[in-house]
Design a protein that fits this description.
heterotrimer; A mainly alpha (484); B mainly alpha (498); C mainly alpha (145); A: 484 residues; mainly alpha; two-stranded antiparallel ribbon; 2 strands; 77% helix; globular; C: 145 residues; Methane Monooxygenase Hydroxylase, Chain G, domain 1; 5 helices; flat
Chain lengths: 484, 498, 145
């Protein structure tokens, strides 16, 4: 193996070493703060190691991994999100009983899986990354074993995720049976040489799309989402909503660009249908929710639908613009979603998960900064200007309009109209007057790490909303080199 | 730089007002007043700095009276491009005046969370000023949205009994229509890019985009829907009576006086110059919509039993004059539309203030609870009569000038449409006199002693009355200032026709 | 694979196979349903085991430790498979392979240490452990809940 390849792999090696070291640390002494700090330090080291890796990019490390700018950007995004979740976890779990020390390790391994996904250029690494991510998630979701809802969510996710993985494996097997190729590039060459795809190839592609659709909680495969979002501890929910989906979407785009999946016409109506269904189902069902975590779950389904529109546009427009739109949208979505669940996590106490809408009533006048942050996040989710979410939506609109997908754009507009209704409903609840303030809600439990995380996220949100020009050049550059 | 200061002063003044609440709950009012005074000074300075000769010169769309152009997001060719011509300056003057009125009318009405109230009020004004100054479509859209959120809060937090419904209806209507406009903006920029130009959102650059006539028509519709919702024109007007009725007085004044004008401004500034050919094709429909708006809502108005709701419907009726004014394609009618915008801002703002004053005293907006108020509060009643007369188009006051010019201009384009639109001149006295009769005449109901207007209230209304008289007697100033801008609008229209 | 095979003929065997499975299952289940007798007496609900009356419930409760140990066995056993694969190709893999195998084994050992430290390999129940602790250190030592 070349030294170039080793250096390119450095982020992965760092993350693996972190997990092992943290495990040994627990063996010596159980201390939540210590393990948390260790994993946090490991993530920071991995982030730092991205710098030497980026000097050598793009590097193809064996057939499995492709460390180009696209992969490195996503790995950085995932790691930063992981760091934010770790900060939230610190305050969320420190008051709770039980052995919480394994939690940071699992976050670390899940990040490793996500990062592998972002860099994978081969079905084997795809599957390895996906399973590393999912298996860590099962445990993370069910971490508070005493809580019935968490366990239920974990079991649901375990079974459905297992099924979807099986679907995907079957799809991969079909493709392999026909083409004899497992690498994306090889498959792309095979597809290009074939005049038309036969039924086995078609079923393979459909099965893979179904499998990935499950992980992204796109419409017909979204049924697990609200239950899992509700049952998982709030920081873990933030993790599922961002890291797991972001990594899979990064992979989906690479898979399509490198295998030439865009040229495959029958898939386009299927994907369009999925996008429209996700947007409509997500937004319509969100209208009915009184639980903030469930509401955010449905809204995340809708957001994945919006993102899919930019993705579908790749069939008609230049791939770099698609990569740019998807990347910016995901970055904005990461900031916003982490912030929103961060607020939920900060509001939660050891006794009560703050998910009921009633708990948010009058929050503006009780904890103005927290409510202000949440308002900012919700406005960004609704795509109101001067937030990063708006620029993301602008990108989606641009991609869709460039490709001329008017039906899909109409769906987004309708969805956004519905969306503004329920986002504003939460803001309104927070702004409502409350006559009687319960004494226990008055105790202001503020965790330093969560507070810092939220402040940083809010600043980023506004910064990228007002000066997106500071982020766009990087994304533009990585998108330009992507897929070449 | 002057132009960015106009926006920045309002925004930072709003933040200062918000922050000052922690020290003293009365401080935000003074901060808001000081901010608007400063804004008035700046605007006055800007006016004074422009030589009168330059005002009269017929300007092409690219020669502004004042301009700021900075590159903002280079990836999409988006600039921080602010520019002012006579039309924007007039509307900014109106904004400042009505902003002061809004502060004055909420001086005692708002006693909860004053800091946040004035923050929202001032940011809403900042967004409006931004809309009037933007010469970049992206920036314009941004300011357009920046008006909506603070207004939503104004209605949702400080509104009356049914505020949640009204606020959400307002937000959903405006948000959906503005997203349609966003798509149109993006497609326009892409079309410009494809036809060989650079990727840009700059207004001046996009003015000369060659569009396939079908595409142009659709894009024009995209813009038109957003502006027609704001205006509002008839099929899209249902949010307005609710929003107006439920908003606090200050919010109503801004909503009627300024926010509706952004829709009219958008028609004159964007729809017609950007898509002259499509606008010409669309003109009969737009004129018909305008006439329908005027008549339908005027008829609806006199079925209302709620003071504010009645005034809200008359608002829609009057804003109906804008559509024929803007689309008839001659200078006279366009100038009439501008005068109507200003006159309606003043008179409707005043009527909403009066409705607010009455509500503070009676705790009701129902005509059933009123009656005989003339004896109890003669001064306020006299002023009401004045503004009602202005609304029904009494010659000598601003509204008359605007309506007359629109009808005179429209006659050239379509005598039949003019005849139909003129019917509203019969309907408006009916609803206007109903107000006076139901609220002020008749026996006084048994109630505790009602105080007449306070000095603050009378002074604010007096200022508006003076402005209306001035506009009615000497409209030439407004006509002169807005003429170059409107001439260039008409010029694009005529250039495409031939 | 025959290149000119049309999609339909290509997938036909698969369809026939699936169809046969469905048919067979349907015949077996449906046949039993339609042809079989049905009794509704309480006796019919009892499991029949060579005429002997059942004693007690079949749902025995095992200690979760059995499963834990079983899973450890499966996992560590599976890891050995990788070492077999390496052992066959040890010469071809060379020193790089050797170092990689060492890292692999190192991680396994770290895991083992971790499992031992958290008491996952301890067969005693929680109560037994607590009692043992008390016997050893008196009443103060208690490392975990």
């Amino acid at each position: 193996m070349h030294s170039d390849a080793l250096i390119a792999l450095l982020p992965f090696l760092m993350m693996t070493a972190t997990a092992v070291a943290a495990m040994l640390a627990i063996a010596i002494r159980r201390n939540f703060a210590l393990v948390n700090g260790l994993v946090g330090g490991g993530i920071v080291l991995s982030l730092l190691s991205l710098a030497p890796a980026s000097h050598r990019a793009p590097v193809q490390v064996t057939e499995l991994l492709r460390m180009d700018d696209y992969a490195l950007f996503f790995i950085a995004l995932l790691l930063l999100a992981g760091l934010a979740v770790l900060g939230l976890c610190h305050d969320y779990f420190k008051e709770r009983e039980g052995q919480n020390e394994e939690l940071p390790i699992l976050l670390g391994t899940a990040l490793l899986g996500g990062s592998v996904l972002a860099a994978s250029s081969h079905f084997a690494s795809l599957f390895l990354g996906l399973e590393t991510l999912s298996i860590s998630l099962f445990t993370l979701i069910g971490y508070p074993v005493e809580q019935r809802r968490s366990l239920e969510a974990a079991v649901k996710y375990l079974i459905l995720s297992g099924t979807s993985s099986a679907f995907m494996l079957m799809g991969i097997a079909f493709l392999y049976a026909e083409s004899g190729e497992l690498s994306f590039g090889g498959l792309g060459r095979f597809i290009a040489s074939e005049p038309a795809m036969n039924a086995v190839m078609v079923s393979g592609v459909v099965l893979i799309v179904a499998g990935l659709g499950f992980k992204l909680s796109l419409a017909p495969f979204h049924l697990w989402t609200p239950d899992v979002y509700e049952g998982a501890p709030a920081p873990v929910t933030a993790f599922i909503a961002t890291v797991s989906k972001g990594a899979v979407f990064a992979l989906l785009l690479r898979l399509f660009v490198e295998t030439g999946g865009y040229g495959f016409a029958p898939l386009r109506p299927v994907l369009s249908l999925i996008a429209v269904l996700s947007i409509l189902a997500g937004n319509l069902l969100a209208l009915l929710q009184t639980n903030v975590k469930r509401l955010l779950a449905y809204s995340s389904i809708a957001h994945m639908g919006y993102l899919l529109v930019a993705f579908i546009a790749g069939a008609a427009i230049a791939k770099p613009l698609v990569a740019e739109s998807v990347t910016f949208y995901l970055a904005a979505y990461f900031i916003t979603t982490l912030g929103a669940f961060g607020v939920v996590s900060m509001l939660s106490s050891a006794q009560l998960e703050a998910a009921d809408m009633a708990l948010f009533r009058g929050l503006f006048w009780r904890r103005p900064y927290l409510a202000g942050t949440f308002t900012l996040m919700l406005l960004s989710l609704a795509g109101i200007p001067l937030t990063a979410g708006f620029i993301g939506k602008f990108y989606v609109f641009t991609s869709g309009a460039d490709g001329g997908f008017w039906g899909l754009l109409t769906a987004i507009i309708v969805g956004s109209g519905l969306g503004i209704f329920y986002y504003l409903r939460i803001i309104l609840a927070m702004a409502m007057e409350v006559e009687k303030i319960e004494p226990e809600s008055e105790e202001k439990f503020v965790g330093l790490q969560s507070a810092v995380t939220l402040v940083v996220l809010s600043l980023l949100l506004v910064w990228f909303g007002v000066f997106p020009g500071d982020l766009i050049p990087y994304i533009h550059a990585l998108a330009g080199s992507f897929g070449k | 730089m002057m132009l960015s200061a106009l926006i920045a002063v309002l925004f930072f003044g709003g933040i200062a007002a918000w922050m000052s609440e922690q020290r003293n709950p009365n401080a935000p009012r003074w901060f808001a007043l000081a901010t608007l005074a400063l804004e008035a000074l700046l605007a006055g300075w800007l006016f004074a700095g422009i030589p009168a000769a330059e005002m009269a010169v017929p300007a092409t769309a690219s020669s502004w009276l004042a301009e700021v152009n900075l590159l903002w997001i280079s990836r999409f060719g988006i600039g921080f491009h602010l520019a002012a011509d006579g039309l924007s300056l007039l509307l900014i003057a109106l904004t400042v005046l009505l902003g002061l009125m809004a502060v004055a009318s909420s001086w005692t009405e708002i006693d909860k969370r004053t800091g946040f109230f004035y923050f929202n009020l001032l940011t809403c004004l900042a967004g409006t000023v931004g809309v009037f100054l933007s010469a970049d479509l992206f920036l314009f859209f941004l300011c357009w949205e920046a008006m909506i959120v603070p207004m939503y809060f104004l209605i949702a937090i400080w509104g009356h009994e049914n505020r949640t419904y009204a606020a959400i209806k307002f937000a959903v209507f405006t948000q959906v229509s503005s997203l349609v406009m966003l798509v149109a903006i993006i497609v326009l920029a892409l079309a410009h890019y494809r036809s060989g130009g650079a990727l840009t959102f700059d207004y001046v650059a996009l003015l000369h985009t060659k569009l396939d006539s079908n595409l142009g028509y659709w894009l024009m519709l995209g813009f038109f829907i957003a502006f027609a919702v704001k205006l509002p024109a008839v099929p899209f007007h249902t949010w307005l009576p609710d929003a107006h009725t439920q908003a606090p007085t200050g919010g109503s004044v801004i909503l009627a006086g300024i926010l509706l004008k952004t829709g009219a401004y958008g028609l004159l500034r964007f729809v017609i110059p950007l898509f002259p050919e499509a606008a010409h094709r669309f003109a009969p429909i737009a004129i018909a919509l305008g006439a329908a708006s005027m008549l339908y809502t005027a008829a609806t108005a006199f079925a209302q039993s709620d003071f504010k709701r009645l005034v809200a419907y008359t608002s829609i009726s009057h804003m109906g004059f804008i559509l024929p004014g803007a689309f008839s394609g001659n200078l006279l009618a366009m100038q009439g539309a501008v005068v109507t915008m200003i006159a309606h801002g003043l008179s409707a703002g005043a009527l909403f203030m009066i409705a607010g004053f009455l509500q503070n005293r009676l705790h009701s907006r129902e005509f059933g609870e009123m009656g005989g108020l003339w004896t109890a509060m003669p001064q306020l009643s006299a002023l009401t009569l004045f503004f009602v007369m202005a609304t029904l188009g009494l010659p000598g006051l601003g509204n008359f000038v605007g309506e007359f010019l629109v009808l005179a201009g429209l006659f050239e384009a379509s005598p039949i449409a003019t005849a139909i639109a003129a019917l509203v001149l019969i309907l408006s006295p009916v609803y206007a006199l109903i107000v006076i009769q139901k609220a002020y005449h008749g026996p006084l109901q048994n109630r505790p002693v009602l105080s007449d207007g306070s000095f603050r209230e009378l002074a604010a209304l007096g200022l508006l009355a003076a402005a209306l008289v001035w506009l009615g007697l000497r409209p030439q100033t407004v006509l002169d200032v807005s003429k170059p801008a409107l001439q260039s609008v008409r010029h694009t229209l005529n250039a495409r026709e031939t | 694979m025959i290149a000119e095979a049309s999609p339909v003929s290509h997938i036909l065997p698969l369809l026939v196979f699936f169809g046969a499975i469905f048919a067979l299952t349907a015949v077996m289940l449906g046949g039993a349903y339609f042809l079989g007798q049905r009794h509704r007496t309480p006796r019919a609900e009892e499991p029949f085991e060579s005429g002997i009356v059942p004693t007690g419930d079949v749902h025995l409760r095992f200690s979760v430790h059995f499963y834990l140990i079983a899973i450890f066995f499966v996992i560590f056993d599976m890891e050995t498979v990788f070492l077999f694969a390496w052992a066959i190709a040890v010469r071809e893999a060379g020193w790089t392979g050797f170092i990689e195998a060492l890292i692999f084994i190192g991680i396994l050992i770290a895991t083992l240490i971790y499992l031992e430290a958290i008491g996952a390999l301890d067969w005693r129940t929680r109560r037994q452990r607590r009692e043992a602790d008390r016997r050893q250190h008196g009443s103060d030592a208690c490392t975990g809940p």
